[in-house]
Amino acid sequence: MSTTTRPLLQIHIGSTRPQRIGPAFAAWFAAMADKHAMFEVEVIDLAEVDLPFLDEPHHPRLRRYVHQHTLDWSATVERADAFVLVTPEYNYGYSAVMKNALDHLCHEWADKAVGFVSYGGIGAGTRAVQQLKQVVTTLRMVPVLESVNIPFAMKKLTAEHKFANDADADQAAMLMLDELARVTGKLRPAKR
After folding, report:
1. What is the number of domains present in the chain?
2. Which residue from 173, 171, 166 is spatially nearest to 152, judged by alpha carbons?
3. Whole-prediction pTM value?
4. Helices 22-36 and 167-187, interaxial angle, to 10°?
5. Domain with 33 in it: what CATH number?
6. Closest CA to 14 of 105, 77, 97
7. Between the CA atoms of 185, 32, 101 and 112, what dihedral angle is there, to the nearest 10 degrees?
8. What are phi and psi of 179, to 5 degrees?
9. Domain range holding 183?
10. Is the pLDDT of residue 190 over 70?
11. pLDDT band at 4, cuts 50/70/90?
12. What is the 3-state secondary structure (H, E, C) of the chain?
């Protein structure tokens, strides 16, 4: 496939707090996606997007946005064909900034595949993913079964704050990317 016809995979970093480690896992996954070569890859850092808490006067399903930040966010999400949400686990759940980013829009998320890279302590962020699946399916996204779950995440970082990945994580990433590509091909054939 030529690079101009590859679907766009957006990798969303779902933590904005100081000293966060999500960017290390997002950078690693973006490199894996580049190696996989079935997607164009774009990393979206919700800290840089900096959405205020939902402040639109109309329900997102109406797409009657009045604020520029929502119009910009809509255009960003609309251009994607698939997503990977990189999520920490906070108190058995996912971050408020991730929920806010999802809730800002409605139709822009629909009919697109989504995968998860989660990280945390012993639970590896899996409880956050279970909660996220309820939200993304309501937005008509299609979560893939395969995922990447990173336990004891702080111990997996190098002194340079990079993910010191291993063969198991690499294999999980490739399996998830295979499934994202397969499902995206079925959901978005008109764009190809």
Report:
1. 1
2. 166
3. 0.94
4. 70
5. 3.40.50.360
6. 97
7. 10
8. -70, -40
9. 17-187
10. no
11. low
12. CCHHHCCEEEEEECCCCCCCCHHHHHHHHHHHHHHHCCCEEEEEEHHHHCCCCCCCCCCHHHCCCCCHHHHHHHHHHHCCCEEEEEEECECCECCHHHHHHHHCCCHHHCCCEEEEEEECCCCCCHHHHHHHHHHHHHCCCEECCCCEEECCHHHHECCCCCECCCHHHHHHHHHHHHHHHHHHHHHCHHHC
Tokens of 39: 């997607």
CA distance 16 to 118: 15
The residue assigned the tokens 């989504």 is 114
Asked whether residue 10 is domain-assigned, the answer is no
Tokens representing 85? 């949400």
1: confidence class by pLDDT, cuts 50, 70, 90? very low
